Amino acid sequence: MAGRLKSAGLIAAFLVIFFPFLTVAEDLNFSLIPAEVHIDNLPPGEVAEFELTIHNKDDLAHNFTIATFPPPEDERREGSTEFPDGSWISFSSPTIEVGPNSQANVMVTVAIPQEQKWAGEDWETWLGVTAESSDLLGLKLHVRLLVSTSGIRFSAGFIVGIAAAIVLLGYAGYHYFKRRTKPE
Amino acid sequence: MRVVITSIVIAIILALAVSLPALAQESGTITITMTGLSEISISLDKTQWPLGTVAPNTEYETSPPIEWCTLTVQGNCNVNTFIVGEDAKWVSDPPAYKWTLSSDGTNGEHIYGLWFRISGDTARGYVPITKTQNEFWPYSGGSASSLAPEDTKQFGLRLLTPTYFFSGRQMQTQITISAVAA
User: Which positions of chain A have pLDDT values less than 50?
Assistant: First the structure.
C-alpha cells in the first residue's frame, strides 16, 4: 500500500499543465492588401511610400505587429537579392489595434541611403504582419516588397574605362593636331 | 603645348559626351506597382489545444489526429505557406524556465518535440516543427503546387514531452503558420 502511494506521488510530481487549461475555441482570420508591391527606379537618397491595409475579419479586436522579414533564398523572386538593411523600411504604426470586422491602414516608407553603392540593385524583402495572440496557433501574413534602385554603379572598372578613354582620345587628338600643324 | 592642351580638353569632352547620356538613361520616374491590389488571406478554424496535465516522455496527438484544424485560403492570390515553432515558456515567469523546442522532433531533459501532419500527405507523414521557418505547403521535393483561393488543408499536431521537467508549472508555446503570395 505504501509502495503504491509512493509511485502515485512520484507520477503526480512529474505532471505539468501544458497549454491553456480552460479555453474557448476561436478561429483566426485576417487579410492584407496588397499582397505584393514593386517599387521601381528608386534612386539612392530618395523615399517611396505606400499604404498597407489590414482587414480584421474576426469578431474580436486584435493587435497586429508589422516587421520586415528576410525571405528564404529559394522563395525570393528570380533575379532579386536580399534587402540589405531592414531599418531602411519604417511603418507609421509598427503595432496597430484593429476592431472586429474592421480595417486599418499603415503607411510604409522605404528610404534608401544616398550612397552610390546602392544604385542599380534589385532587392526583395517581406513585410510580416502578425496577429498577436496567446493561443497555440498563430497566424502571420507576408507582403512581398520588391525594390529596384536606379542609376549605375561607379565601379572601379567604370572609372578606369573613362580614364582610359580620355588617354586614348587625348593621344589620338595629339597626333591629329600635331600632323595638321606640321609645316610642309 | 597648345596642341596637347587642346587634345586633352577634346578628349575629356568626348568621353563625357559618351558617358553622360548613359548615366542619364538610368534616372527616371519612381513607380510603385501594387499587383492588381491583390489580397492575401488565410484562416485557421482552431487555434487552441487544451491539453491539461501531461506526463514526461509521452506523446500526445490532437483529435482527430490529422484533421484537427483546417487552413483555408481566402483572398484572391495563390499562396505558399510555412510553419515555425518556439520554446515553451513557464506562464508565471517566462524568463525563469522553458522547454527548448528540439530541431528534429526528438526530446530530452527540458527539451520537447513538436510535429505536424497534413491530411493526405503520405509522402512526408509527421514533420518536425522547429524554431526555423519551414515549408508547410507546398514543400520542396514534392509535386504539389501552391494553394489557390478556397483551397483547404487539414492538419494535426503531435507533442512529445521532455524526458524530465520541473513539475507543477504551466507551460505555453506558440506555433505560427504564415503565408506569402506564390
Answer: 1-14, 20-25
> Judging by DSSP bridges, how do beta strands A16-18 and B52-54 pair with one another?
antiparallel
**A142: closest CA among B160, B124, B178, B111?**
B178
Q: Hey, is the C-beta of B83 within 8 angstroms of any chain A C-beta?
A: no
Give the number of other CB atoms < 10 A from CB of residue B21. 9
Domains of chain B, with CATH numbers?
A: 36-181 (2.60.40)
Does residue B176 sit at the A interface (CB-CB below 8 Å)?
A: yes
A106-119 pLDDT, tens digit per residue, is: 999 999 999 999 99
Domains within chain A, CATH numbers bracketed: 29-176 (2.60.40.10)
What are the DSSP E strand ranges found in B62-102?
69-75, 79-84, 88-90, 98-101
Grid cell 520554446 is found at B87
Q: CB contacts < 8 Å between A and B, how many?
A: 250
Do the interacting molecules here have an ipTM over 0.90? no
